[in-house]
Amino acid sequence: MVAAAVTVVALVCACARLAAADSNALWKIVDLRCVPSQQASGTPGQCTAVDLDKRYVILKDITGRSQYLLIPTDRITGIESPRVLDAQAQDYWADAWASRHYVETSVKRSLPDNRLGLEINSVFRRTQHQLHIHIDCMRGDVSDALARHTHDAPGTWRWDTLNGNRYRVMRITALTQGSDPFRVVARDNKGADAMATQTILVTGAGPSAERDGWLVVNSGTEADNGSGTAEGLLDHACRIADGG
After folding, report:
1. CATH match for 23-242 among 3.40.50.2300, 3.30.428.30, 3.40.50.1820, 1.10.10.10
2. Residue 68 in 3-state DSSP?
3. Tens of pLDDT along 58-90?
4. Closest by Cα among 91, 209, 79, 93 to 143
5. Helical residues (DSSP H) of 29-91, grouped into ranges
6. Are 244 and 232 in contact (CB under 8 A)?
7. Rg (CA), the chain
8. pLDDT above 90 as % of the chain
């Protein structure tokens, strides 16, 4: 048991050093470790899960008690890639949402859908050049603030201030096809250069996303008091699970 624990610690430390030094670290973990392991032995290796059919992995992030990442098994740099808007693009947001149970397993309790969030950073606020969607708990104060959008008419942007920055918020009733958050944001951010400045967060519009829908929270570096990241709206300590 001691040897196994030492091995796990060493592996995590090695990953931390790799990520700090190499902007392709996530891609190497996926392409050189997790996918080959799944193909060879049916086990995900360093990853938590590998879905070869849907072409993504789930990886426990080294930061936080409950943060996971959805990472495509295809080489896709990030939010700016035209591949996320292809007609045959994978439903990464829907798959990330379906993977929120890993967060709940980490904190050993079920959480309402408006207390869970997905997030992707702009090109200018990320360290890794492989698309990855963060999956984690929402900050309690941010969830409370977003409650005012629970009954917004679907498909309409409304501006709000969250954590000191301006974001626009849209309620949607699905995460696929025309309501895929990448497509929603890309409608008025045409081209790779415009998308590169954007950040997207998705959370439940209410306790049950199936009933209440989802909120797409979007900002960009070009917006007045905007932001290229919404990661600060997540809580990697998941205090909400402890009543905080």
Report:
1. 3.30.428.30
2. strand
3. 999 999 999 999 999 999 999 999 999 999 999
4. 209
5. 35-41
6. no
7. 17
8. 91
